[in-house]
Amino acid sequence: MKEGIAGKVIYRKDYTAYPWDVSHLDLHFDIGMKTTVVRAQMEFQLKAGINAPHRIVLNGSDLELISITLNGRVLTHSDYSVEGETLIIPDAPQNSVLKTEVRIHPANNSALEGLYLSGEFLLTQCEAQGFRKITWFPDRPDVMTTYRVTLEADKAGFPVLLSNGNLAGAGESPDGRHWVRWDDPFPKPSYLFALVAGDLALVEDHFTTRSGRDVSLRIYVEEENLDRCDHAMQSLINAMRWDEERFTLEYDLDIYHIVATNDFNMGAMENKSLNIFNSKYVLARPDTATDADYQGIEGVIGHEYFHNWTGNRVTCQDWFQLTLKEGLTVFRDEEFSADMQSRAVKRIKVVRDLRSRQFPEDDGPMSHPIRPDQYLEINNFYTATVYQKGAAIIRMYHTLLGERGFQKGIKLYFERHDGEAVSCDDFLAAMADANGVDLGRFGRWYSQSGTPQVHVTDQYDAASQKYTLTLKQHTPATHEQKDKQPLVLPFALGLLTAEGREIPLQLETEAEAVTGTRLLIMEETQQEFTFIDVPEAPVPSLFRDYSAPVKIYFDYSSQQLATLIAYDSDAYVRWDAAQRMAENAILEQCRQHAQGIEMVVDSSLVKAFRGILSDHQADPALLAEAMMLPAEDYLADQMEVVDVDGIYAARKFIKKGLADELTVLFSECYARLKDGRPYQKSATAMAGRSLKNVCLSYLLETDTGESLAGAQLEASDNMTDTLAAIQGLIMSDSLLAETALAEFEVKWKADALVMDKWFVMQAVKPGSNTVNTVRKLMDHSAFSIQNPNKVRSLVGAFSMLNPTGFHAADGSGYAFHADRVIELDGLNPQIAARMVAAFNRWKRYDEDRKVLMKAELQRIASVKNLSGDVSEIVNNALR
Ligand code: 0A1
Ligand code: ZN
């Protein structure tokens, strides 16, 4: 039976504790690709206050049961019952030792959950509920136990046998078989179990923790990738040191293993001492990986490492609490990246990501609070809301309590809960108690979905020199939750003079003025803040550092935005002001375009960009961020009814207009940054490449760009410059694009990760023709519908990053995409569900497109045996 078919809705309010303690689990694997036999022995003790005998409930899926015994007695069919994914033994004694033996078939497992095959080796993925595909067990995160794992296999085929914890023994027999035993002393939930078996090469290093523990760090990869592990290893060492310095958290075992696979549904997985990674987040060499890839690796390596405390040592009581570990761990990885790279640029990237991925989720058919109240398929709730909005909410604790207060809260959280499975309420209580504050109202952020809108108005009275800001907050109803309450919003602000000087801030009720950013708290539906001794009508710099995850509305004049762009001390506000100005200009031209009026480029935008290009003080990476125009999808979100072609045309027009007006400055900046020096990995070098390549993308809108891109491609010694050049040539319809793509293909055809980039570049080419290219590329030998990275690179990139292709007026993009979803559903429901979400915003388009998308959704919904994963998304979208 396929995943989730018999699924029913699970409610948070129905949580009940598991009645048994499981004190130990002993697992034995007889490893084979086609068939693996798993023997399990688990020790159950009834919890205090519960009367024996009592029933034992276990979870299992797709398991061939060979035998089952209870306290040494073989159980027959009349001793237990199996229904769907549960096995129930009705009357088990107080102390019960259960032994099972099952057969599973890893090579047939295309869902990549449980034990499966990747290339030539076997590995597991158990979060959220994959362990039940390996053996019968209470597969829920609040059942924590110690594991002893023995892996037995043919030595030639599976020389490396890994599981969690410390090495506890190994041996071999004359018939070519060998075994390895692993003991994990830390009780853990089943979702953190992992094993890896196969022929893998390794890179090794060491880290000495601050209490003197020597930890062996090993990264396992396929032999040919040994020269691409340096950056991941360095990132791991940096993460270990950072967590000691910033959070006083130290690693707790003698071994830390990372295994890279090309076949993975997500980014990576934090299994105790045996992280498994999508190879995309491990492997990098300057000629194969972009600067963004390097940053991604640092972030994900950090993320999985940080889970060792926030997730593994203290885990989730149930899956509704997922943000407990994910929001907190994302916050930690964001801070790690900010400390390693440029804090300001990292913050901007985080905000951009939240707005482009999470806001639409909050505004669509799958909206949910960061702690959802119900789900059908938990895998559908590994969302931008749980992760990124969850991190934004952790960041607000940090803003409200300060670094010291936050760390006090973290310390108490671990003192209280180390080794436990807990809830978001426990985290909030630790933060509140450690700081002696009441966070009751703040807790609403956990239960309320939707993005709050904050409308800000101001009033300046020259006579009294008083300035009043009025803030009104309102969260629009979401599909699953109509009534909304006011939330606690940390509101960081500054006021500038027209010349950009910071005005000292003094509220009416205060005795003294403070210069610089002020933190105020908004918690009512409407609040006023009046400042005194304000010498002139100021330019408000609102929600500095993006102090709350809200949509901010203020009617800025172009002049005010220009002041913020040129002078504000806060990088986020500078960037946001530039984005607003560009957004206003593009949406204005989009309206003109719709009425058949000739488009023009706003002169204040040109002036602002001239200022940005002339700024030789600021971090080049920041300037690059400021000049990247808002994405088409983000612009679409700002319209009542999305005008797909209008947005494309207006955005392109503005880009070309800016390029034409500022060709000289873009050229100078490009020339200055194209220094001809060999590749360097430093943050400074990355920042330079980022600005240089933004300049190139503008210059490609003019006559000068093509030859620059050609020359850059020719001279490039790194993937960042190579991709920027080729992507630029494709986007500007250059005749050189085809040759560049062909040469790239010849050079990299055997390299899975690099070929992913080759697919993406072609899938995102604007226009209704691209669907045909994508269709053809599906037959390319480097493509496989079974491989999630390939699906994301071709099918995902087309449907989510190519609005004019996916939304082609004839519906060809929709039909292609729906076919892929249906095809994928039979293979890998998790990935199919990710893909089908491209249709989620169908109601926001024009009538013709709505009809077409709805029909495709209905076609998918009518597929026989559709997985629970896909049907949950589709049914919500259609409702
Ligand atoms: N916990 C991992 C993410 C993850 C979740 C589910 C997976 O398979 C269904 C795999 C990985 C993280 O946050 O990195
Ligand atoms: Zn995580």
Explain what you see.
There is one protein chain. With 879 residues, this protein is of the alpha+beta class. It contains 26 helices and 31 strands. The strands form eight sheets. It has an eight-stranded mixed beta sheet, with no helix packed on it. The protein has a five-stranded mixed beta sheet with strand order 17-18-19-21-20, with helices on one face. It is globular. The model is unreliable at 1-6 (pLDDT under 50). The structure holds O-methyl-L-tyrosine and zinc ion. Zinc ion is lined by residues 303, 307, 326, 329. Residues 303, 307, 326, 329 line the site of zinc ion (ZN).
For the largest sheet, list the strands in their spatial order. 6-5-9-3-2-12-15-14
| Biggest sheet details | 8 strands, mixed
Count of helices? 26
Percentage of helical residues? 40-55%
Indicate the radius of gyration in whole angstroms.
28 Å
Q: Classify the beta-strand content into a percent band.
A: 15-25%
Ligands: O-methyl-L-tyrosine, zinc ion
Essential attributes:
879 residues; alpha+beta; 31 strands; globular; disordered N terminus; binds O-methyl-L-tyrosine; binds zinc ion
How is this structure best summarized?
By secondary structure, this protein is of the alpha+beta class.
Topology:
Blueprint: E1 10-11, E2 20-30, E3 36-46, E4 54-59, E5 64-70, E6 73-74, E7 81-83, E8 86-92, E9 95-104, E10 114-118, E11 121-125, E12 145-154, E13 160-163, E14 166-172, E15 177-188, E16 195-198, E17 201-208, E18 214-221, H1 230-247, E19 255-261, E20 268-269, E21 274-278, H2 291-306, E22 315-316, H3 322-340, H4 343-362, E23 374-375, H5 384-417, E24 421-422, H6 424-435, H7 444-447, E25 453-461, E26 466-474, E27 489-496, E28 518-522, E29 526-531, E30 539-541, E31 551-553, H8 558-567, H9 571-594, H10 603-614, H11 620-627, H12 632-637, H13 644-661, H14 663-673, H15 683-699, H16 705-715, H17 719-731, H18 736-748, H19 752-763, H20 770-777, H21 788-801, H22 803-806, H23 812-825, H24 829-836, H25 847-861, H26 868-878
Parallel strand pairs: 2-12, 18-19, 19-21, 22-24, 25-31
Antiparallel strand pairs: 1-23, 2-3, 3-9, 4-8, 5-6, 5-9, 7-8, 10-11, 11-16, 12-15, 13-16, 14-15, 17-18, 20-21, 25-26, 26-29, 27-28, 27-30
Helix pairs in contact: 1-2, 2-3, 3-4, 3-5, 4-5, 5-6, 8-9, 8-10, 9-10, 9-11, 9-13, 11-15, 14-15, 15-16, 15-17, 16-17, 17-18, 18-19, 19-21, 23-24, 23-25, 24-26, 25-26
Zinc ion (ZN) is lined by residues 303, 307, 326, 329.
